[in-house]
Specification:
The protein is α/β, with parallel strands linked by helices. The protein is built from eleven helices and eight strands.
Length: 348
């Protein structure tokens, strides 16, 4: 299965250094992850809101990162995505318009509050905010923008107005990129079985209690699946959640491991996983799928593949750049005649 195996010392994709003339700003947000094994404990403490965390849990999570290379590649990959979006934004910019894209993490360095302080020091007064996750939940996307709001309140002397983009699960460029990854992954199966390979679409599970406040997360996920399966007529598919946390609360299901087991029990011998709630490789992909589910499938005699993650797929990045421009125009930050329409850019 495809994976990202780099080292923390790899040269990260850097954004354009000549930002002194930037007129518009975008802050790209992602979850964050430890840069080395020693970072796992403080990273977990932030994820868990500094609740007591046992040594056993720290060691369990540390071992997961040890098995995927000793660190999380999410910052490097998010910077690559941000660089591509910045390039697309500036390629369509009007005379005198220049975009700068900033990268901030929710649970690790560079933290949202630190990046926003740097932005304020640079004279930024407003920015579009984009989370690199397509589907809204109050517990996920909502939590990112709560941290953005907290950071702005903390720096009351130089508050930054943030225009949030909260969902993009039906963005054509995102769907085009996923469809491309799916068809490419299906080509790794023998030609005579490809049309019969079940595709398991997955997203990160959340606690079931989100259903009590009519959270749109499950509905938005199913809308993405419907849009993708319409492009794959006749291809069998399944839906599953993955990566539920080990807490006493029930989490959304079915779990992908249970679905893999059921398909094996039904006599299936080929299965493909397509994560739609994640856009790049990190521990939920490199460990939960590439290690745990791969081990499960091997024990069941299954040929398991997953898609290459979208990462910096040009169609997705062009689509996101177009969506940023549309939102900025709606807010009056750009004039309509300056909005280009690159391939895949139309929003839902």
């Amino acid at each position: 299965m495809p994976s990202t195996r780099t080292t923390p010392g790899d040269v990260a994709v850097t954004l354009d250094e000549a930002h002194g003339d930037a007129t518009h700003h975008l802050m790209v947000l992602a979850y964050g992850g430890p840069d080395k094994l020693e970072d796992v404990r403080p990273y977990l403490m932030d994820v868990r809101h500094h609740r007591p965390t046992s040594d056993e849990l720290v060691e369990e999570i540390t071992e997961r990162y040890r098995q995927i290379g000793g660190f999380s590649p999410i910052l490097r990959l998010t910077r690559a995505e941000a660089a591509g979006i910045e390039t697309a934004l500036n390629a369509d910019a009007a005379p005198g318009e220049r975009w700068r894209v900033w990268v901030a993490m929710r649970h690790w360095h560079p933290f949202i509050k630190d990046v926003m302080a740097e932005m304020a020091a640079a004279g930024v007064t407003r920015t579009v905010g984009l989370v690199m996750a397509p589907h809204y939940s109050r517990m996920s996307i909502g939590a990112y923008f709560a941290r953005v709001e907290d950071a702005s309140v903390e720096d009351a002397d130089a508050p930054i107005e943030t225009l949030p983009i909260e969902r993009w699960g039906l963005l054509p460029g995102y769907l085009d990129a996923l469809h491309n990854r799916i068809t490419t992954a299906l080509d790794r199966f023998p030609a005579e079985v490809r049309a019969e390979v079940p595709v398991i679409f997955t997203a990160h599970s959340l606690p079931e209690r989100i259903l009590t406040w009519d959270d749109p997360y499950p509905k938005e996920l199913q809308e993405t699946v419907a849009a993708l399966t319409a492009r794959l007529p006749g291809q069998p598919w399944e839906w599953a959640y993955q990566s539920a946390a080990a807490t006493p609360d029930p989490w959304l299901g079915p779990d992908a491991g249970e679905v893999i087991q059921r398909l094996a029990d039904e006599g299936k011998r080929h299965v493909m996983i397509c994560p739609i709630g994640f856009v790049c490789e990190h521990v939920e992909i490199l460990f939960d799928i590439d290690v745990e589910f791969a081990h499960l499938a091997e024990g069941l005699g299954l040929h398991l593949e997953r898609i290459e993650m979208l990462n910096d797929h040009p169609a997705m990045l062009a689509g996101l750049a177009g969506l940023v421009r549309e939102r900025a125009t709606e807010a009056g930050w750009l004039t309509p005649e300056h909005v280009a329409a690159p391939s895949g850019a139309s929003g839902p």
